[in-house]
Amino acid sequence: MSTSRRFNPEVARIAREKIGQSVVIMRNERGYSQDELSKIAQVSKVCLIDVEKGRTDYQIDTLLAILGALQCHIDIFLRDPSASAGFDPPATS
């Protein structure tokens, strides 16, 4: 029996918000303003603000640029294997 997974936009929205909150925390811990971080990451300030607010669907390259500027690896978001990234959890039989 195959289980189908459906994309859940609400879960994706929550994931973007959590990522944005983490970016804000890491930026503040490193003492960067939004202007400074956007210049280091080579992304627009508007784009950085959108990521921090969880308001946009951004490309993975944008997130990687921001995390790189923060000297942080993307696996920081993968620590909880039970966390969903926009998909409903698989049905258990």
Explained architecture:
With 93 residues, this protein is mainly α. 52% of the residues lie in helices and 0% in strands. The chain is globular.
Short description:
52% of the residues lie in helices and 0% in strands.
Overall, the morphology is: globular
The average pLDDT is: 83
First CA to last CA: what distance?
9 Å
Give me the strand/helix succession.
Answer: HHHH
- Considering DSSP H and I runs of 4 or more, what fraction of the residues is helical? 40-55%
Radius of gyration: 15 Å
The major sheet is characterized as: none
Count of extended strands: 0
Number of helices: 4
Instruction: Name the poorly predicted regions.
Output: none
Q: Tags for this entry?
A:
single chain; 93 residues; 4 helices; globular
Topology:
Elements lengths: L8 H21 L4 H8 L3 H9 L6 H10 L24
Helix pairs in contact: 1-3, 2-3, 2-4
